Amino acid sequence: MSRCPSTSVGSTPPPGATFAAGEDVRWLPRRLATGLLVPVHDFWLLDGEVLAVAHHGGDGQLVEVEILRKPALAAMHAEAFEQVWELAVPHADYVLAA
Fold it and tell me: Which of 6, 45, 42, 13 is nearest to 27 (CA)?
């Protein structure tokens, strides 16, 4: 695992903190992602129709968040999310490979 995701896994709080409020964090090992077509950017889907896309610079820092009101594009992202979510491993069960 590259340094960035490895750091994210290690810094995600154990179940309890935000998990008590209903947050469900999952991780998708690359070996499970074969065959998936997924967006290459972080995104938030709002009300099923508005897409907020996070654009990062080469250093990983957030550059801007683009708001797109394109229901068809939002639907494509929602479908990709559902496919990933089905295969992803819950945070409490995820073990970093050596």
Answer: 6
Angle, alpha carbons 65-71-60 (nearest 5°): 25
In the chain, the amino acid numbered 83 is: Q
Using a 10 angstrom Cβ sphere, with 0-12 exposed, 13-18 middle and 19 or more buried, the burial of residue 74 is buried
Structure-token match 């968040």, residue found: 65
Q: Determine if the pTM surpasses 0.90.
A: no
The Cα–Cα gap between 63 and 80 comes to 24
Residues 7-22 pLDDT 10s: 454 555 555 566 666 7
How far are the Cα atoms of 10, 56, 62 from residue 40, in angstroms, in the given order? Answer: 22, 11, 14
